[in-house]
Predict the structure.
Amino acid sequence: MLVLSNEVHIDMSASSQEKVVAKESHGRTAHHLYLQNKTASPGGGAQGLRVKHLLSRSSRSIGQFMKAAFLPQGYPASVSDDYLEYQKWDTAQAFCSYVTGTLATRAVLKGLGVGDKAASAAGATVMWLLRDGAGMVGRVIFAWIQGTDLDCNAKQWRLVADILNDTALLLELVSPFFPSYFLLIACLASLSRAVVGVAGGATRASITMHQARSGNMADVAAKDGSQETLVNLIGLLVGIIITPMIGGDQMVIWSLFLAFTCCHLIANYMAVAVVKMDRLNLARFHIATQDFLLCGSIPGIAATNGREPLLTVLLPGGLHLDLGCRFGDVIESTADLHAFNFAADERYLMKLKLSSGKSLYRSGQISVALHPDVTASDMIRLALHAEIVKLCLSTKKLDISSPCRREMMALSQFVFNDDEHRRESRLLSKEDCQQIINMSYRCATRLLPEFLAGLEAKGWLVDAVQFNVDEWRSVWSKSGIEVDLSKTL
């Protein structure tokens, strides 16, 4: 027999005749205690259980509804530790974006001729369709060019998407001032929005995958949509209130736009800054590897994400790592293949090509050809190999604590020797570059087990990496491979 009681507070000292049989929680919130009376019931029957509520009825109903409607089931255990902080900033930026969007929509409608007796409905329809068409084309082209990189640099592209969103709103806001160029400006704004749609949607999915820790990606995504809908409803009410109030006062419109845009950008930056990705992309890998090679330790997930650049990583420069390139981009002759002293079963080949200029040895490209059977461990090895090359080319005086200190110092000395011809040409020869690749390969091979163990100890997931890799794969052998040429085209 269960007896329900509505007491909120429990004084166990006053319940000397009862003992707690069970404690019931919903998620991590304690709700009920099940109490058993120690005194035997009349007639020697079974002792009954009494339920005591730990929350008031109103708190239970409101709190349970809000949690069920807007938070993933099992929160907070079912999501990542950065979930709540990210959602706070994401909610703030969504509100600011909706308000500025309201101001921009008003300007676009004015540019289309709403309120102008001389404007025709047919002309406005055509302009609207052309505007949408430009956005559709831009969406396809951007997804084709940058689709893979959106996974690798989700935080960076999320920030770029929101900057482009504000740019699109700015273009729409100024479009009525240039009626002769309204269609062009509207199409440019639509192109920006197209990039926002692709980049924002794809990176949101990547962040959602990171946040979902109990196989609940769909639930996390659905509740994120509910949160955004609630914020948009609030923004809608604000828009309904302020639109009649501001009228056509351009000073007020632009003041509101600038204020909310600044808040939008700040909130977006803070949102992506608090995300602590536990998989390695090239930027996070660079930070972890540099600390490992220079200090002998690997930084944790939070420290590495805190140092990860959020914009400059998308800009070209330095030694670019080209993964999954064609075999012919790495090997130009059989002599090049025989010049490698890699293991016979190694699943990648690497080529170093430096650019001339004032930044001696610090710009160029590291091209990597991959075998079809390449694994995540191989990708970490080749990325570690490339980071060793970059470090030894970056500075003449290395201060390192790596177990391969002697080999890396020798490599740096080889790079920055006093060869007169090299100083004049400011370039390393092809043979020099190959020697650097071979010497650094030995260091990478020796360091890999310790490096992998250090990553796992810090909580990094090493079963997969988020590197931007092209699809070219090659099979090679110094002694040649058997291919039935009669079956080839």
